[in-house]
């Protein structure tokens, strides 16, 4: 009888005893959370592998694999609940005399300035769109003064520096998948100027479904831009390293990076 196979006591209608194979100890809440987190990581890894297999080229597959490794580290931090929020109550003012007024600085000799500039790389973060300003396309291409864009003015600033001190300070643009194509369309107009411009892309991370914690996008072939996002300025270090530009600049004697937003013309 079915009742006998399930271990049901059919004679004592008020008593139910069910045994399905081996009994398993019920996990406490901590163990349960750890198991679900590990399951989420495993399922995400499977889905990312499927997406990688849709890459149209070996080069894109390798680049995306590097980005996915960074995303998985970020996902693990999310699952663990770790936060990089600044602890403002631990922030203290600088000691007296730590900040020197610009007017008190001595003027270095032009030769010394040229030597210092030979070690410098200027990096502009160019991954943002102009949507908050009511515009479409890269923020760097918005006209802001005399029909000149943020990018135009940035190029002028660095070219002036190079001409004044007979220097060769390069400009590096960190683009995103949202801005890279449009930015490259305008770069040829700067070829006749005294400035070398390099570009690299920050990472492209997949957006996740809130409920399943799995990627919304499923392919790298003509991917839907809404299924991906650029992870922000903190991604600069890893993306700059992966681009190969860091190694190249170090090999040519560069030691310092000056990093700022493309729309920060005062920096």
TrEMBL record:
InterPro entries: Nucleotide-diphossugar_trans, UDPGP_fam, UDPGP_trans. Keywords: Nucleotidyltransferase, Transferase. GO terms for biological process: glycogen biosynthetic process; UDP-alpha-D-glucose metabolic process. It is an enzyme of class 2 (transferase). GO terms for molecular function: UTP:glucose-1-phosphate uridylyltransferase activity. Its EC number is 2.7.7.9. It catalyses: alpha-D-glucose 1-phosphate + UTP + H(+) = UDP-alpha-D-glucose + diphosphate. It holds the Pfam family UDPGP. It comes from the Eukaryota. Homooctamer. UTP--glucose-1-phosphate uridylyltransferase catalyzing the conversion of glucose-1-phosphate into UDP-glucose, a crucial precursor for the production of glycogen. Belongs to the UDPGP type 1 family. This is UTP--glucose-1-phosphate uridylyltransferase. It comes from Stegodyphus mimosarum (African social velvet spider).
